[in-house]
Write a structure and sequence with these properties.
The protein is mostly helical. The protein has one domain. It contains 14 helices and no strands.
Length: about 280
């Protein structure tokens, strides 16, 4: 009987699974995170700004009509939503810190990342799977309440929001929620990959963003330099959100500069993940 040589063949998943190979990683990480009652409490607290702004819109539409001042009391356009996202971003920072600190760091500490990448999973599958966890958490408290608030505003004040010239507002709310979520999720994942301790990674990420905010505030106050907001990730997100939603801007700086900074941070985060997520461990 002839014997034929059979060389190494790369394993390929079934066609139906090729585009969703990251899903088991996302599902398992979400299960572990949502099993913590403290994190569930944070998720509930993350909806507090939505309740506050919903009551605010309701109060202005109900009592503003009595005073015949609704048109001046309720800001037209995206100003309400811009303020909502600024409040929401502070809570998103906490959620991202607690939810994302150990996503990669714990895998590096336990060696689980080598197990993941020894399976028919690529580095891209792993990063997308972990990133999807943070995006799901952030979008749950930004995109969902943002669109609900937009629906409430349309229902209570159609004259203010249900007009053809404001038809762009709904997509702008959704886009800003996505930008905010990505701006926090990618750096959090990159910082997590730089440590083997989830606690250290969480403190480093939170300290990094708060430190950048403090530096931007000090430089802006001392030097009266509008471009100082470019030193802060959260300030860049807020400035870009004001431009997207057509809200009054806190700075005269063009929106393109914060957008370029956020793009550079995203690319830098991906570069860090590319360097840290490996199928082999280098021991020095």
């Amino acid at each position: 009987m002839p014997i034929y040589e059979q060389a190494y063949r790369k394993y390929e998943a079934r066609e139906a699974l090729r585009t969703v190979r990251f899903w088991p990683i996302t599902r398992e990480a979400l299960r572990l995170i949502l099993a913590k009652r403290s994190f569930l409490a944070l998720l509930v607290i993350g909806w507090v700004p939505f309740l506050g702004f919903a009551i605010y819109v309701w109060a202005l539409t109900q009592f503003g009509q009595v005073a015949e001042g609704m048109a001046s009391a309720l800001p037209r356009g995206g100003a309400v939503f811009a303020q909502f996202f600024k409040w929401q971003m502070r809570l998103n920072l906490l959620l991202t810190t607690f939810g994302g600190a150990g996503l990669v760091a714990n895998d590096l500490r336990t060696g689980a990342i080598l197990v993941y990448l020894s399976r028919p999973l690529t580095r891209r599958d792993y990063v997308i799977g972990k990133l999807s966890v943070l995006l799901a958490i952030n979008l749950f408290v930004t995109l969902v309440p943002g669109l609900l608030l937009y629906g409430i505003a349309i229902a209570l004040a159609p004259a203010q929001f249900l007009t053809w010239d404001l038809a762009w507002l709904g997509p702008a709310v959704a886009l800003h929620a996505v930008v905010l979520s990505l701006a926090l999720s990618l750096p959090a994942l990159a910082v997590s990959s730089l440590s083997r301790s989830g606690r250290v990674a969480g403190l480093a990420f939170f300290g990094l963003l708060m430190g950048l905010d403090l530096v931007a505030l000090i430089v802006g106050l001392i030097g009266r330099w509008p471009a100082a907001i470019l030193l802060s990730i959260q300030a860049c997100v807020s400035a870009l959100g004001d431009a997207l939603l057509g809200a009054p801007r806190d700075t005269a700086l063009a929106w393109a500069y914060p957008a370029l900074v956020l793009i550079a941070i995203a690319l830098g985060s991906l570069a860090v993940l590319r360097a840290r997520v490996r199928a082999v461990e280098i021991v020095r």
